Amino acid sequence: MSIRLGVLVSGSGTNLQAIIDRIAAGTLDATVEMVVSSRPDAYGLKRAEAAGIQTLTLSKEVYADPITADEVIAAELFRKGVDYVIMAGYMRMVHEPLLATFPDRVVNLHPALLPSFPGAHAIRDAYERGVKVTGVTVHFANADYDAGPIIAQRPLVVEEGWSLDELEAHIHEVEHVLYPDAIQLLAEGRVSVRDDRTVAIAGR
């Protein structure tokens, strides 16, 4: 079945573009109903508009109260009949209004293998630690930052001599494949959250 997505962005929107491209290719059973941006100058908005997707940008004044902002976002996405909220480079934490409206249906992408290297600087933190393997995590968001149930992970071997920029570029390449793959698992109804707050994937 096809699922309806609301996508939250703050920046360039490359993961949004990967989702749009996979839908267009027929390999992701989803539609993007709305793209919400925390910044009016986010390039992700242009990507959405080019694909004919409705957008919503909230002002700094609304975002000054994060609960109010999330109430507005939750109401708009609920009105659009969204099944899952997809955080794609969204640089704000989500709060109770969104989490309660879409329980276990707010999905986040993190550029490290959680629980290692949580937080906003995961790629740099992993690089400076000198790890030999890092990767990407797709997880359900909850009230604890980067701590929700893990849906999918994909490792990336860090080659000797890579610069931080090179590592970041390779991480993004993994993201652009893994995120649509994980969303397709949701579309196929194969993802469930167990009582112990771990994720089960049917057919694996």
Structure, briefly:
The protein has helices at 14-25, 43-50, 60-63, 66-79, 96-101, 122-129, 164-187, and strands spanning 3-9, 30-37, 54-57, 84-87, 106-110, 133-140, 150-157, 191-193, 199-201. The protein contains seven helices and nine strands.
* Rg result: 16 Å
What order do the helices and strands follow?
A: EHEHEHHEHEHEEHEE
The largest sheet has its strands arranged as: 3-2-1-4-5-6-7
How helical, in percent, are the residues?
A: 25-40%
Structural class: alpha/beta
| The CATH homology group name | Formyl transferase, N-terminal domain
The CATH topology label is Rossmann fold
Report on this structure.
The chain is an alpha/beta fold. The protein has helices at 14-25, 43-50, 60-63, 66-79, 96-101, 122-129, 164-187; strands at 3-9, 30-37, 54-57, 84-87, 106-110, 133-140, 150-157, 191-193, 199-201. It has a single domain, classed as Formyl transferase, N-terminal domain (Rossmann fold). It has 7 helices and 9 strands. Strand 8 and strand 9 form a beta hairpin. Helix 1 crosses helix 7.
